[in-house]
Amino acid sequence: MDVRVGDVLVMKKNHPCGANEFEVLRSGMDFRLRCRGCAREVMVPRSKAEKNIRRILREERQDDA
Question: pLDDT tens per residue, the chain (65 residues)?
């Protein structure tokens, strides 16, 4: 699964604060995610995170040169 730093992940399960969107801060064997509701950061193993991803929101950047 192609997950990049800066992507927003919409998860199947909510965070205890009620939000289900997380921003990717670090990607590798595990992800460092920041909850978009309460701004708490969590580390989640890649295998567990990929099972719970419903959708990836990504802003396509257009480089004007």
Answer: 889 999 999 999 999 999 999 999 999 999 999 999 999 999 999 999 999 999 999 877 655 55
Max alpha carbon distance in the chain (Å)? Answer: 44
Among the listed residues 46, 37, 42, 44, the one whose alpha carbon sits nearest the alpha carbon of residue 17: 37
Asked if 18 contacts 33 with a C-beta cutoff of 8 angstroms, the reply is: no
CA distances from 9 to 6, 36, 63, 65 (A): 10, 10, 24, 30
